[in-house]
Amino acid sequence: MSALMNLTSQGRAARIGSACVVPRTQRTTSYICKAINKTDNVHKEVNVRSPLERAAISIATAAAVVMGTFSPLVLEPHAAQAILVSSDPVKNAAAILRNALPIDNKPIRQVQKDLESISEALRIPGSKSLGPVSRAIRASQDVLSRQKDTIVKSFAPEKKEYGLENIEKLQAALNEFQALVEAKDKQAVPIKQREALTYVGNIEEAMVKGFPFQVPPEYADRPLLLGRATLEMKVNCRQTPEGPQTFMQTVVLDGYNAPVSAGQFLDLVLRKFYDGMEIQRADGFVVQFGDPEGPADGFVDPKTGDIRRVPFEVKVVGDKEPIYDFTLEDLGRVNEQPVLPFNAYGTLAWARNEFENNSASSQVFFLLKESELTPTGSNLLDGRFAVFGYITQGQDVLSDFKVGDKIEYIKVIDGAGNLKNGPSV
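Structure tokens predicted for peptidylprolyl isomerase:
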């Protein structure tokens, strides 16, 4: 990201017309504009700023690139504000998705919390970690035993059978889990933990009754994902440390919190829009694709002949429904936390033009989360980009993706029935 940091010029918005040519506003490019001359002066100015200010400037610059403009426009960030960061922000994509479900059942949330705490316990070296793991398992078993009725009462009537099935699976998994711990098989603990938490997530999803809010009328005729959908993505990488490889990834779209964003992406997946498309940007910060061949910078709706746009959409923790058309920055709510944050490696969001909130169409990006510019729980991307899903399996290989690698396909493996106003293909 140092190349982006070097674009800061005298602390003011500065356009460097000769630095690079941007043929169209949203085209992905494999070139990064070179820093302007007089970099010594640039570095002097950056170095007198506080670390938070320097990070904010860098993120603002990176954000302009992620939005799809690829124009060397650098913005002076707002004055630094104190942000209360959670002491231990959730970074796991599956955990974020569990937390994002619109449910209120304390017993199952306690089971979830106990099982998720195992990840922290495993950081304890050697067999000493097995004591806390065992206690977490017993606590989960105790809650299931004593408060099963309270859990079952929360099931949506049409999902009760599915919920009960997953309770049985969870109870069996916990018994097997405890046996593994007693055998001191620490290597198997993360695998069994993941299995148990999968059943917890299924139980929690069985509690969702209907759809939690009404999409605004102006967007109600768009493709809408009224629930969740699971996708499989297959990418052929031409060059990795182990040679050419094919990678499979699982992506979960969250329509409960981003129905318009997730719905329009799922619509394109069902149209096979991304099949055969190349990765168009891979720079250690994001992996981006979705710019079609030809003059259009997005998906051209065959019904209208025009580029279909995606309205900006973000749901804030505590709000009953998403915000549309305005970023949290626009509304002065930058310190508030989105339900779907940029906390996880492989966060999926729409790319858009910098100054046009509703300009997304078909270009999307996965965030390579470990960048120092996006600290978990306090980054400046939250609320400025529309997140609508996460890679839940296979996200680690994102770092192997390069420009020109080909997406063989993206297909739906579950949840297609949750799409409303989908394509007739």
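Residues 2-74 form one domain.
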